[in-house]
Specification:
Layout lengths: L1 H67 L2 H14 L4 H16 L3 H14 L3 H17 L3 H6 L10 H14 L3 H14 L5 H12 L4 H13 L1
């Protein structure tokens, strides 16, 4: 009986040795790969947290510079953030804040540079959309209508579509393209949520061009039913 059990154990041991000789190296490398991946992930998380913490300190510096109107400090802090912490959300928001400050204090080129940086680096499509809308507005201030349109060419996230259409209508008016302006304003009005206060402003724009936004919308709905 004992020898029978010994034979079974020997067979199991031989099977295990055979399995390990065949698959052991592969399993070892798989385990190493898993451990390396986990190590890399935890290292990345630690690096991200460290980056965010350092960026938050500089973000506070940007806020202080804006409040105190210290342009030299603002420029230096933004440059440091963009060079060292480009992937941090703090940096993208700081760049938008800096762009607004420069635009309000006759620093048009500095404002554009910061907005372009956001457009090129932000991972949040909402932030890039906001940057493009502001870049379009700054181009309009310079009366560069084609450039203003260029910033609006790339598709916008759905929530920003009405604003981009409204901006196109504004550019149309500047170029005396009244019918195109009516079309863009109507599209903006139709796609904007009813309770959005900005929708009323677009409705006023249409009224100034002799268009009843609600009547046009009702007529379109009737045509679709027919």
């Amino acid at each position: 009986m004992a020898s029978h059990l010994d034979l079974e154990e020997q067979e199991q041991l031989d099977d295990l040795k055979h399995f390990w000789s065949k698959y052991g190296p592969l399993l070892t490398w798989m385990l190493i790969a898993v451990l390396l991946a986990y190590s890399a992930w935890t290292g990345w998380q630690f690096w991200q947290r460290k980056q965010a913490a350092q960026a938050s300190v500089l973000f506070e510096t940007v806020e202080r510079a804006v409040v105190s109107s210290d342009q030299a400090l603002l420029t230096r802090a933004l440059s440091d953030m963009q060079d060292k912490f480009a992937s941090a959300t703090y940096t993208q928001h700081a760049s938008l804040m800096g762009a607004r400050y420069f635009a309000e204090h006759e620093g048009l080129q500095a404002a554009k540079n910061n907005l372009i940086w956001v457009n090129d680096h932000a991972s949040d499509e909402g932030l890039t959309a906001l940057a493009r809308l502001r870049l379009s507005a700054l181009s309009m201030e310079e009366k560069k209508w084609d450039q203003a349109r260029e910033w609006l060419k790339k598709p916008f996230p759905k929530a920003f579509e009405p604003l981009s259409l409204d901006r196109l209508g504004d550019i149309d008016l500047q170029e005396k393209k009244v019918e195109d302006a009516k079309t863009h304003f109507q599209q903006a009005w139709s796609t904007m949520p009813e309770r959005d206060e900005y929708r009323q402003l677009i409705e006023v724009k249409l009224a100034s061009l002799g268009v009843d936004a609600r009547a046009v919308e009702t007529e379109k709905k009737k045509e679709k039913k027919e």
